Structure prediction request, 273 residues.
Amino acid sequence: MVSDIQLEEQAQTIAEKKLHQVTRLLFAIGVIGQLLFVYYIVAFYGGVVVNGTYEKINEQLPHGIIPGDKMGNFALAVHLSLAAVITFGGPIQFITAIRKRLPVFHRWNGRIYYVTAFLVSGAGLYMNATRGAHGGMIMALGNASNALLIMTFSVMAWHMAMQREFRAHKKWALRAFLMVSGVWFFRMGYGLWILLTGFTGVGANATLSGPFDRFLAFGHWLVPLLLLEFYFYARASSNAKVKRRATILFAGLCLLLAVGIGMVTMVFWMPVL
Ligand code: HEM
Prediction:
């Protein structure tokens, strides 16, 4: 005879496994999307450098290269040249096989990642403060808070690794990774919004001052962070129902993310490559 407790334990195990599988799928879809972003950065900005077609940068960015603004242009160069490095280096850290078989690589890649996170966000903060953000004060505040969270969570992840608190380290590393991915979520947000609004993009406009733009100014880091905290909660919960609900939510997000990546690639990246 199988007791109620055993049944509950079985339900827990199955729910745990499904949650694990669906979040791995979500992560894999996200990595594909981030690799496409890396491809865009390298192909577009690398192409500009190789061909010397620097005027293309100003067609692509709201500010770009400003004559006479040496520091701002230097910050932009640092920002863009390290953007691909950080976007590529992040996901590798979460691959268990690499972590286990190549611990020295994991440690060095982690150090490079957090130093790069500070450089990219520091350069971003400088441009944000001196040139202003496309979208005005609300967008500038949203970007600045993203930068501060990247730095804070990176410090926490590094600190926890040095303390050999590996469970806490993994949690802070995931938080830092999602914050670094904020710039990518920002684009996903628009890709999905364009699709969900039947290609009208209602609430968003060219000056990034519409209600949806304002929501996304903070939403690009707040929504992923809330979802991650819900994932931590569901994993730790002893209630199989909570895990099942989380599995449904994350399965839906797999679909949304896959569609968002397709949209962003087609609307923002492919036309300029
Ligand atoms: C850490 C992760 C980040 C990455 C990987 C990243 C990457 C990029 C990339 C690829 C672009 C060019 C956009 C395009 O071609 O569509 C860009 C532009 C820009 N980023 Fe970031 N970014 C990050 C974080 C930030 C943060 C936190 C801020 C602000 C505090 C920021 C401020 C800017 C600004 C102001 C521009 C536009 C520059 C201009 O108009 O001249 N970035 N970023």
The first helix runs from residue 4 to 51. The chain has a mean pLDDT of 96.
